[in-house]
Amino acid sequence: MPKSMFVNVTAEEENRVAIVENGVLDVFEIETLSKEHLKGNIFKVVVEGINPALEAAFVNYGGERAGFLPLDEVNFKLYPSRNGGQTAGKGRGARISRHLEKGMEVLVQVIRDAFGSKPPTMSTYYSLPGRYLVLMPGADAAGISRKIESAEQRERLRKILDELTVPPGFGVIVRTAGMETSPRELQSDLESLLELWRTIETAAEQVKPPALIFQERDLVIRTIRDYFTTDIEEVLIDDEPAYVRARKFFEAHMPDKAEVVKLYTGDKPIFTKHNVEDQIERIYKRTVQLKSGGSISIDQTEAPVRSAPPAARTPPRAPTWRPRKKSPGSCACATSAASSSSISSTWSRASTSGRWSGPSPMPCRATRRATTSRASASWA
Q1: Prior bond to 361 cis, omega within 30?
Q2: Which CATH number fits domain 3-36+216-286: 1.20.1530, 3.30.420, 3.40.1350, 3.30.750?
Q3: Spatial separation of the C-alpha atoms in residues 243 and 188, rounded to whole Å
Q4: pLDDT digits over 302-311, tens only?
Q5: How far apart are CA 337 and CA 328, in angstroms?
Q6: Quick one: which of 53, 143, 182, 281 has the most CB atoms within 10 Å?
Q7: Which pLDDT does position 13 carry in this prediction?
Q8: pLDDT digits (tens, 9 = 90+) for 316-336
Q9: By the 8 A CB rule, do 17 and 5 touch?
Q10: According to DSSP H, which parts of the chain are helical?
Q11: Average pLDDT over residues 36-45
């Protein structure tokens, strides 16, 4: 089945990359030039403040708003507990104040761009993606991409991982593009990523925060690195400088595939020429029609926020009134015939005035009904 990658960077406001398989849009990436893109960048920052309630730190990376560094994104191997007597670990007892403090210099990587009123999210779990591998400094794990589902391929890659020379303190993940590569190619990719990390460490030692240490590649190179597979027959690019950058990337990492990169010079826009524009318009519609006859409506919003008062501050519930049950003979009306006569006469007078003026307690309901009936009969 024919599979192609189209790169459109001639527009002033955005860059777009599409992968089409058999005429159907399979992958679409877009980058708005007016919006700041920080995801993947590595900064040397300084901690501006610690929020114990959120268990997070706010760091100054040089932007308009401070970055957000939650406790879950603090690598305890790189930033252990400052008081050695307490064991570092995540859970109920974990506190970010044990690992970070105000004024501390930290190396972070952006894992989520700012959205709406939310600042960019930072992490100290670094990941450097290469062509075939992802290098994870500060980790010891080795794994294989979940997209590789073949048990045979996964077993072959596990054996190759065991043969790779990975320094201690580094983790690696085999990407989908590395599924059919040789051990030599994987080792070469690993060495280039290790050299990149050493360069990042050297640069971080020589600058004062806040400073940008490493910048992620542009959309064109990033998409080729992450999505190009051997079954893609051509890569068409409608901009000459972008074509030159892509050609150099292929020659450095995939020299046998460099000929698939071509410069598009047609009269029509590249997406219109290959019927991609109409498919892009459909994916941006709010409602998606399903083959079964139903539909799905999709709206982009910020993360929902739930607010509830603490249990300790919840106002006490109002007491519920319940009448007390009287045991037989406990009514003041039944103490004696004399007192019953006195109460009945007093209640008769109260019935006419609407106010009880007799001795406490008030007569029971049965006595009140009886005396009220007799008073009504006497007035009649």
Answers
A1: yes
A2: 3.30.420
A3: 25
A4: 666 555 555 5
A5: 16
A6: 143
A7: 83
A8: 566 666 655 555 555 555 444
A9: yes
A10: 151-163, 183-206, 219-227, 240-253, 270-273, 277-283, 337-353, 365-379
A11: 93
